[in-house]
User: Fold LPXTG cell wall anchor domain-containing protein from Enterococcus pseudoavium.
Amino acid sequence: MKKTIFAFLLLFLFPMSVQAESSNAELTHESSLTITEQTSSSASFAENSTVATTDSDDSAATSETENSELSNLQKAQDTTIDQIEKETGIKKSNDPIDNEQDPEKIRTLLKDPSMASILSPSEVDSYSDQQLLNAMLLCQRISADTYGLDVSGYARILQALYKDHTLSWDNIQNIINYDPHYYTNALEMVDKIDSLQAYLAALYPSNSSFMAIRQMSNQELTNVLKHISPLQEEMIATQGNFFPGIIAWIARYANDDDVRSGGTVPTNPSTTETTSTSTSRSSTTASTTAESAENSVPAKSDPNKQEDKILGILPRTGEERRTWLTVAGVLLLVLIAFIMIRRNRKK
Assistant:
């Protein structure tokens, strides 16, 4: 009898136990899948946010750097032009004089009332046709060396040649075939440093009444060219040309003691500082975003602990949420106890 009751008890309780365990297992599996999906979604979202933020910051930093470089180049150009304008007294012209080869037309230009403050009509007539043409050739070359000169610039060159005599046509015509614009970079001129020295001495002597350039040693001139070279490369890369002409830049830095002595590094500190600041800011932003992503993504936990947490939420066998199982178990125990008591009494 006992065996029969015990077998009946096992048959009755086994399906309930299996059902409870299956239910718990299914709930545990579903909860694990839900948490995994949420974790993956959070990680993916955080990663995408980090990449998007980093790309945006990199673009902003790059744009800011490019704008800063262009601004620095423009400032360098303006400073060089201002110095030449101060040296010559002639403003950069948007309407430079044409390469006129007719002496009479040149005289007509020089006799214009606007030129009365520079030279008189009688002075204009005192110059020969050849002198006017020589001055025109020199004017065109200096315009290429610096920036476009108008008729007033031409008049000042004419006077420097044949009135002030601070320029010698004999010296100029011996070196005029040397063209500094033949070289694509300032460093290439170092190999022909003697020719460049002769060119500067003839067209821009230190006593010129038009445009004087400080006389330098070969080493000093080489230092100036080395300083100009990276600036020239950067300007050509960003703007497509090098303006004003190379001689204007030589004239500017010839008066800079640090550059002339080779004491300065031929780079743009402002550009370097801007790039460094932008890069640092971008790195900081990316780091902050990564930290935020870390905080938003749940850390991997121990499977046993995770299961305990899940089971703490889900109903277990014997809890109030499974009341009918508890009641059935109690009834079975009572029934077994009752049967055993009756059997003992019969004995």
About this structure: Residues 83 and 252 are 7 Å apart (CA to CA). The two ends are 14 Å apart (CA to CA). The chain has two domains: 2-60+280-346, 89-267. The chain is about 70% helix and 0% strand.
